[in-house]
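Please decode residue identities from the backbone states below.
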């Protein structure tokens, strides 16, 4: 069991039989795991006050032999439905660990590396143990590692999800709430889970210079995070006007096309080497 994380795939035929488009992609996804067709891209996370890259979010891509680069929205939902997200999720963590190790070996330390975790991954009872093993294998400093969770994923509030989060938190891993403000239960999650940062959803950030409501929502999330002593990160920052607004109201970090799209490991390394200043 210890070595073959791929054997954890759970299939639920009934659940998606009616959806024709999902059926074709599933065997291809199994092949993709076997043939190692995934790539982990990195989008820089920038400290707003210094303008320096402090880390990145890892975002998966599928390098399909015929179809080219496939974005996660096209296959993550299927992977979640079929349980294939479990082995894929382990691949992501393992790749992130390997890349952190490679960066450190080149003298390029980063403070934060975040990874998206699907709620479905908590259904694997080996989650904590497997992640612990990967942490040991790649000597990952868990203070660097952060798992991004979406509110919708946590909404069902199942006990095994909470237990999984607590187990991983005991290993020293940080958690952030992704797409903050778009879910249903933000406040109770903040009250009861070990969340260390909030990511303001792009849908609010994109409106701060036109829409007074978006402005107030973004200000309120920043204020909330700061008063709870949490990090606050704005995602989808595309313009310097948006950045100025975020800086003015004390948002800690920004991520978005203004700085960089998600890029390959090699390109991310070049960005870090250029002195981290963007
Ligand atoms: P997310 O976690 O909300 O990730 C942010 C998405 O916004 C990324 O899309 C990113 O490329 C995009 N983005 C970043 N900055 C900007 C910007 O300035 N403007 C615009 N328009 N978009 C921006 P991507 O990489 O296609 O990922 C889509 C979603 O797929 C992610 O949303 C996440 O929910 C999921 N995902 C990606 N990688 C993984 C993974 O390894 N595991 C799991 N479970 N889900 C993943
Ligand atoms: Ca995310
Ligand atoms: Ca997000
Ligand atoms: Ca999202």
């Amino acid at each position: 069991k210890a070595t073959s994380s791929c054997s954890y795939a759970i299939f639920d035929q009934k659940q998606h039989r009616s959806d024709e488009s999902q059926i074709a992609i599933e065997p291809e996804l199994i092949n993709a795991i076997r043939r190692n067709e995934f790539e982990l891209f990195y989008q820089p996370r920038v400290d707003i006050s210094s303008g320096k890259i402090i880390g990145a979010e890892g975002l998966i891509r599928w390098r399909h032999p015929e179809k080219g680069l496939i974005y996660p929205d096209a296959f993550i939902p299927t992977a979640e439905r079929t349980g294939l997200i479990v082995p894929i999720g382990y691949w992501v963590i393992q790749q992130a660990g390997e890349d952190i190790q490679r960066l450190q070996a080149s003298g390029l330390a980063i403070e934060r590396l975040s990874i998206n975790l699907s709620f479905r991954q908590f259904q694997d009872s080996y989650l904590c143990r497997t992640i612990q093993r990967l942490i040991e294998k790649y000597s990952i400093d868990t203070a660097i590692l952060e798992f991004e969770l979406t509110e919708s994923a946590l909404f069902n509030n199942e006990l095994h999800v909470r237990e999984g989060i607590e187990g991983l938190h005991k290993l020293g891993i940080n958690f952030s709430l992704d797409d903050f403000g778009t879910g249903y239960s933000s406040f109770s999650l903040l009250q009861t889970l070990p969340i260390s940062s909030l990511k303001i959803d792009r849908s609010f950030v994109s409106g701060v210079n036109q829409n007074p409501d978006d402005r107030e929502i973004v200000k309120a999330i920043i204020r909330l995070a700061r008063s709870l002593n949490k990090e606050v990160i704005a995602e989808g920052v595309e313009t310097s006007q948006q950045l100025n607004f975020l800086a003015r109201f004390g948002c800690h970090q920004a991520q978005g096309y203004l700085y960089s799209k998600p890029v390959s490991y090699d390109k991310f390394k070049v960005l870090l080497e250029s002195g981290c200043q963007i």
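Observation: The chain has twelve helices and nine strands.
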